[in-house]
Amino acid sequence: MKEKTEKYRKGLSKKESFLLSELARENKPIFTVRDAKKILREGPYLTLHSLSKKKWVLPLKGGLYAIVPLDIGVKGSDDFIVHDFVIASHLAKPYYISFWSALNYHGLSDQIPKSVFIATKKARKALAILNTEFVFVQLKNSSFIGIEKIEVENQKINISNVNKTVTDCLDHPEHSGGIEEVARAIYFNHEELDLSNVKDYALKMNNITILKRLGYILDKTGLLEKNKDIFKDIQLTKGYSKFDTISKKRSKYNEKWMLNINVDIYPQRWMY
Question: CA-CA distances (angstroms) from residue 261 to 72, 90, 94, 248, 251?
Fold first, then answer.
């Protein structure tokens, strides 16, 4: 039995073909309604609606679309998947991908987060697009450092470098799988990390709590002696910071690192 023709991508009108070819010429595989308006003076909304119905473009969110390449096949947008990082790069400016998403990308965590975590300068509500949640984490201007560009699906994506990723995760464990996931990442990958670079980032961000958490993790995992020079001349701020930002405070304190130990980590069980 033949499949219904509704399941197949339909032919293009001259206007639709012109729009797609112009967007391709401008290297905009993901585009906005505003982009379409600049190309088409008349009827951009009707054209986009038709292209969506014919499966030549994939609506991502209100006003944002992805062109479905020819090599995807006759089912068009039904068979098309856009990488989450590519979508993320079009959701906020300025931005960079970090926290648990970058931790996994850099191979520091084998856990695949269900959400994509995006550092931004303005507060924004989370978005659900194509079964993925995009979480925006507002950071100060001073945190927009240590960013590198990677290529995903021929698109340039901003992402925190490996040491800045660890710094961000220590700053916001709640967006990084929790403090134990961050501690595991540091412990198993410490030889590939430049923890003095993490210190530099923390100081530039004027955030000593990052170094408190790092010091305690190194202490608990037996890595402090090897990295003790990192904390030379570092004056810890007064007041006890929470070790884990997700959990409630507990009546357990560590005076050495000025932390409220509201979560216990057990490195010995990470081996099993």
Answer: 52, 39, 35, 10, 8
